[in-house]
Structures are given as C-alpha cells and as structure tokens.
Amino acid sequence: MDILLPVLAIGGMGLIFGAILAVASKIFAVDIDERVPQIVEVLPGANCGGCGFAGCNAYADAVVKGEAAVNCCPVGGEIAAEKIAYIMGVTAEKSVKQAARVLCQGSLENTDTRYEYDGPMDCLTADRLGGGPKSCAYGCMGLGSCTSVCKFGAIEVKDGVAVVDEEKCTACGACVNICPKHVIAILPVTSKVTVKCSSKDKGKKTRTVCKTGCIGCGICAKNCPKEAITVENNVASINSELCVSCGICAAKCPQKCIISTRVIKKAAVPNSTDDNRDDDAPPKIQVAKKANKISGSLSNN
User: With the CA atoms of 165, 170, 175 and 181 taken in that order, what torsion angle do they form, in degrees rounded to the nearest 10?
Assistant: First the structure.
C-alpha cells in the first residue's frame, strides 16, 4: 500500500501533464506547407549554406515563401532546380555554373617565408602569428584550412598554395568563408581569364615578396578592348560580364599574374611547319612572339 499510492500519484501527474501538452500542441501548432518537406527531399542535404541560407530546410522554407529562387542550390545544380520548379509549378531559369578560385600564385617557388612556422596546419592559427609565415601579407598560406572544410574534396594544397578542382567544386562558399586572407572567390566557370593575385601593396614592395604579384601597372586595363579591367588598391580586377576571354591582358602582363585558360583551335595554315605555336595567345600577340624568336636567332649568330 505504501508503494501503490506514490505510483498512482506519479501516474496521475503524467496523465495530467500529457493532456496539457496535447492541448498545447494543438493550440500552438504551426502549419507547415506540404511543399517544404517535398523540396527538402529533392535537395542533396549538404547543408553547406551555399544557397545563402542556414541549411536545406531554411532554403526550402524560403522558396515556398517566395524569398528565394528555385535555382539557388549550388550542389544540386540544374537537376535540383528543375525538381524544385516542378514542385512550385514554375519554370527554372538556367544558371551559369560557378566554382571557387584561389586568387594567388604564391607558391614556395614564387614567394619567400619570413620565419619557419611550427604549429597546427591551420591558416587561422598561423594568421595570428604576424599574418603568417609567407613574405606576402595577402597571399595564400597553404596550410589547408580550406581543404578541411570542403565537403566535396575539391581543394588541395600544392607547392604551398591551395588549388581548386572546378569539376568537383559546387561553389558552396565554405572555403571562401574560412580563408583569413580572403584569396578565394566564387567565379563563373565560363570566365577563362583570372587575376591570380590579391596583394594590395604597391608595385615596388610586391616585387620584393612575390615573383608573380600584381604591381598595379595598368597595362592590362589599357590593352583590354572591352574595358573589362580596372585597377583599384594596386591590384587589377576583371569584370566577368564584360570580359570576352580574348587573353590579351594575360599576354601583356609583365608579372604573369593574369592567367588565361582560353583554348584557341589551330587553323589550317598551308605550308606551316610550326608545331610549337602557343594556342593560348591571341593571334596578334602570336605574330610578335614569332618575330622575337627570329630576331633573337639572328642576333646570336
């Protein structure tokens, strides 16, 4: 009898509290649009934040509320966008694939170190020690913080600088957010010309710390036929919307800090025996290169 009364009391309290919670759940229930879980189901579930929201659930809720477009998921790409558009009863607009790019060529060969770093392989930690071991205060430290947060294995460190595999990259932005030097940017993969430097030092100082640093000379901007290049804070930047990837800026750059991945197909030239032509250089620049080679050969004889 002494045990039965406490058991009944606790059981009765449990029933009362259960009834109260059941009533409260009905009163304070929040209606969820059935399309939200449907959208979450077609998303890849990476919860990377690349869409600009806290996660897949937050993005799905924003889409249903009309606060986000159906093609914002960089991981799911066009396939996810089409499925979300079908759920929402709209048409998915085509989007240009984007990927992260490291705007730095500060490899172990191109730049020096100010001191020997002996600590955790983490850029955030090294940055607290006088801005890191490399001589350029704006360059990639190559300690791999970006690689540790990439869920897709799209980044690796080669020769002291991070390199992105654009085929694997989903442009989620995790690497951009963690980089203390801010040398990683999200750019359209269709952009074939990139300024691979983030230094804001004046040209004289840049030359002393990096072999391929931008010195802000403006030669690229002066020669750009589309006026797609501007020089601000001693570093050039390219407007991808204006750039036509002609490659003239890359050929003219004295520091070779502008990289062009443009591929020009060889045209059939009668009686041509030049198998070493530089396909990446614009035609006009190519002629100049050949002339230089011939002139050099004559002067040496």
Answer: 70
